[in-house]
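Because showing beats explaining, we think one record worth quoting, sequence and backbone structure tokens together, and here it is:
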Amino acid sequence: MTSNRFATRLNSFASRPEAEWPGLAGKPSLMQMAARAAKVEGLTDLDLNFPDHVGEKPTEIARKLGDIGLSINGFAMRYYSNPAFKLGAFTNPDPAVRREAIDLTKAGIDAAREAGASLMTLWLGQDGFDYAFQADYATLWQHEIDGIREVAAHDPGCQISLEYKPNEPRSYSLMPDAATTLLAIRDVGLANLGVTLDFAHVLYADEQPAFAAALIARHSKLLGVHLNDGYAKRDDGLMVGAVHTLQTIELLRQIHRDGYAGAIYFDTFPDMTGLDPVRECEVNIATVKRMLGVVERLEKDNRLSAAVASQDAVTSQAIVQEAMLGRDTPGVT
């Protein structure tokens, strides 16, 4: 069955600061948020944003997190440190800005490795365009490929995972969907590249999550799974299974079949509406464990394999609903 490692978005634990740190002036520190996250039953890992969360030696951060029972799943790059990145990081028209973004990413990879992690996630949200006639698309693509290739080659022992998203902050992202991301990986041609699949991003890319995962497993490798939910219009960051329960279960079944052994990471936004982040994360973990139980029951049910092989949607739906909700109650019609 899929890994029992559960990771989460650290910034979620800044939600409702008055409940955790009465009288706090300013934002909570990394270790304040981490200590709050450590209260979550079943949470094993955190992801750290670079450079945002790395204000001291990475080895020291890893030690402090270990002292409260948490490991570092990986690092994730953020390109906000220079306002010029708004026009692109790896694809910026200014070669000096492109160089700064690439060097910042290399520094992030080095920091991740110093912290004992071997995964760096690249969400290249600043790389894209907003207007017709704004950019030469072939040039943009080449800059992107060159940048990804250089940072991936920097440390072949570190896995570099591309997280795609249709838009935001740019109107059109250069990595909007699974297929385009896989084309980029093919163009780069390095073995330590793979894909992070974010459930809400996949939904509003108009993709079926399990199908996207199957394509990734066929043409590259799945290095990260970010679970959340939404209404397929934007990156809602809702709790797991809140809207697309069946699709989430199908995704979990697919990645189990494909041998995914990484952490399940919760990229949800309890801070957007002031939810209790500890309870929210605990419910997400419990939900995924129940879903994995459904996956286990489905994998033992030969009827589902037969229904899927014949593309019998009615029978497959009946089997999945039974695995989720149980058999019909006697006397109820």
